[in-house]
Structure formats: structure tokens, C-alpha cells
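[job 4417] fold queue: 2 targets
>>> target A
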Amino acid sequence: MGRYTGRKCAICRRAGEPLYLRGPRCETPKCAFRRRHTPPGPQRFKRRKRTSEYAIRLREKQKLKAIYGVFERQFRNYFAEAERLPGNTGENLLILLERRLDNVVWRAGFALSRAQARQLVRHGHITVNGKKLDIPSYLVKKGDVIRSKEREKSKNLLRDFAAATTSRSLPSWLQVDRERLEARVVNMPTRDEVPFEIKEQLIVEFCSR
């Protein structure tokens, strides 16, 4: 699978809002979005024009993909699964993305950003139910226990990140023990606990056309 290697601040500028893709750096004056709110690219000859309904829906979908760091094929698979599940398709989609292992590591405060959490999982620093798991897209289930691998390097990494994220609010569906570097999934996430504004109905309309 490929990965995005371009400027993450350009994604925020294109979306027209901060997506916090670089963790705490996005809250500092160094953030390019805070310095320039215009979309990326030359501005001299750009004219302000009305945004089409198609563009609005596409932008919302691209925003969600960027936040969770998934590519188009992955996203389509998640959407197809959300359609098969009972209930609201848009809410099902957000809950599936929230259940990704890399997102859970970030939500537990063991990484500064989702991209960093994905790297921790890929490099084998994370275990699920006592077994090393290096698949960021793994969907956690109720009762799963996510913790640091039993080696000093992994523990030191997660301990440093946990210390830097003590002010981050934790979701109620996770029970986190920062001392033991452990997070337990006590419930499935709900739509109300998704920590950003997203208009999932626009995404459903775009993907269902």
C-alpha cells in the first residue's frame, strides 16, 4: 500500500479547516494553515466561483479520508461494510474508522497523531490481547486490550507520548491506564464521540450516486 508523502498542511488548506494531521504542531504558529488560509497553488489568477454540490460532497469525503489516513480503495471497502451493517450508513462508516487500531492508539494518548500511531503499529510496538499486531487497519472489538510491547524501547516510546498527551480527553469507550501503558475497549464507539465535525450524510450521498 502506498502512503501520502506530500505536505500535510496543504490538505488542511484545501479542506479550508485545520484537520490536526501533524498533532500538537498544528496548534502552534508554525502551522502553515494558520499562516495562510487560502487553498494551495498560485493565487494570482484564481477567481472566486460558486462551489458545486458535487465539490462539496467530494471535499467532505476527502476530508474524512485525510483525517484517518486511508486511501480510496480502503475507504470504498469501509463504505461497503457500513452499508451491510444495520442502522445509519454514515454513522456506521464513522464507527468503523474509529475502531481502527491506529486510531485507538492515538485516542488512548499513546501517540501525538494518527500518522505516528500508524507508524508505532507498523513497527511492532503495539500488542493486542498479548500478541504483537502490526496491522493499523485492524478493527478492535469490545474486550480487546491494547498495550505496549514488552521491551524497553517500546515502553519508553509510549511512555514519552503518554506524558505529552495528559491533557487530551479520553473517550468513554476506552479505559486507559497510563502507568501500565494499557488501553481496554470497554464499549464500541458511538457517533457522538467522534472528535471532529463531519457531515457524513454528504459522504453517503456522494458514494451512493
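>>> target B
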Amino acid sequence: MLPKAKNADFNKRRQAIAGFSLIELLIVVAIILIIAAIAIPNYMRSKILANEAATVQNVRNITTAEVIYSTTYGIGYSALLVNLGGTGTPTPTNAILLDDVLAQGTKSGFTVTYASSNPDVNGRPTAFTVNAAPVDVGHTGNRYFFTDQTGVIRQSVSGPATVTDTPI
């Protein structure tokens, strides 16, 4: 049998290596929750800003594709957004100027609506408008975007942007 002094030392060492107490574990969990509460809103905000920046670039790409389309084919602007996409041999209905995802109208959490207008005497569109709206306001984006054949991109936070809204 061990003397009492040696037995007490053994019990202290055993308790020291036994593990964490419940209070210590709760403190660690609380710290993790505090860090998550700070990080998640910042992540969501940065994701929204990234979606909006990508959408502004997508709207620019559509405007550039329209200028190239009009110059290449000499028939005005495209009648439909989908005409600017495609694969294979370029034609007026399959111009291969945009990626197919954007040409279908939804990309980076935004829905893009395209409309050609103002046909000339031959029925060729001489104007177009592009509106980009968040798929889920507050989650995929907070701003709406607009552009037309002038190439000026405009924004609105209260609803679909128009030609009278603030330029970017």
C-alpha cells in the first residue's frame, strides 16, 4: 500500500491529465460562436459585393458584344440576348460573343433582361436595354443595374434601374 502523500500526488496528476472541465468546454464553444457571429455577416456581405461586381462586368460584356455584333453583321443590334451566345460557327443567331450561361439570362445571382427596340426602316434594332435584377434581394445582391446602347451603366437600390438612375 502507498503512503498517503504519494497517493495524493498520484490523484492530482491523474486529475491534471483527465481532460477538460465542462466550464472550459463551454467557454471554447462560446468563443467559436462569437467568431462565427462576426464572420458570417461579413462573408455574406462580401458575397453580395462580389455578385454585384460580376454583374456589372456581365452588363459591360453584353454592351461590348452588341457593338461587335452590330459591326460584324451590319444588321443592327441582336433581337435576343441568346443570339449573342452559342457554339460552333458564328452566325447572326449564334454569334458566340457571350458565354451561354449569361446568354440564357441568369448569372452570378442576377437575372438579366434584354430588349431590343427602335427598329429602322428595314426592321433592324437600333437600340437595346439591359436590366439586371438580383434573384433574391438581400442574399444575391442589393442593387439593380441598367444599361443601353450608350454603354452607361446605372444603378438603383429601390427597384429596377432605368435610364434616369445614378450612373456607376
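[job 4417] complete. Note on B: The mean pLDDT is 92.
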